[in-house]
Structure formats: C-alpha cells, structure tokens
Specification:
The chain is α+β, with helices and mostly antiparallel strands. The longest helix has 20 residues. It has a five-stranded antiparallel beta sheet with strand order 1-2-5-4-3. The protein starts with a strand and ends with a helix. It has one domain.
Length: 75
C-alpha cells in the first residue's frame, strides 16, 4: 500500500463531505460501513480513504454524544 506521509483530511463545503485519505492509490471498490460513511478500497482490498456524507450533522451528533457521556460520568 502506498501510504500518505500523514493522513490528509479534506472538507468539501458545498457537498458537506469530509474525506480522510489514508493512502494514495486508485479506488477500486467501496464498502458502506454505516449510514453516510463509506470506506474506499484499493485493488488489494486495503482501506485508502473514508468518506463521510452529511459531515456537519455527523460531527455534531458524535461530539454531543461524547460530551454528554463525559458529563454523565462526572455526575
């Protein structure tokens, strides 16, 4: 696998898509791992990227869930 020196995170504002590039290479296949989250695979079946659709809502919900769990743990 041709790894990227550092994973690269890109946000496409108009489409509200967050993309994490883990390795360089051509996407040959993809697998939906959760609603609005897709793992992109190369010819060897290795994950080269992760795409999150509706990223703003996804991040808001994930962060709120994490914060609420921490608050409940403190009570």
């Amino acid at each position: 696998m041709s790894k990227v020196k550092k994973p690269q995170l890109r946000y496409f504002e108009e489409e509200d898509i967050l993309y994490l590039m883990l390795a360089e290479g051509e996407e040959v296949n993809s697998v939906e791992i959760a609603p609005d989250i897709t793992a992109e695979l190369n010819a060897e079946g290795e994950i080269i990227g992760i795409e999150i659709l509706n990223a703003g809502r996804f991040l808001q919900e994930a962060l709120l869930e994490t914060v609420q769990a921490k608050i409940l743990a403190l009570e």
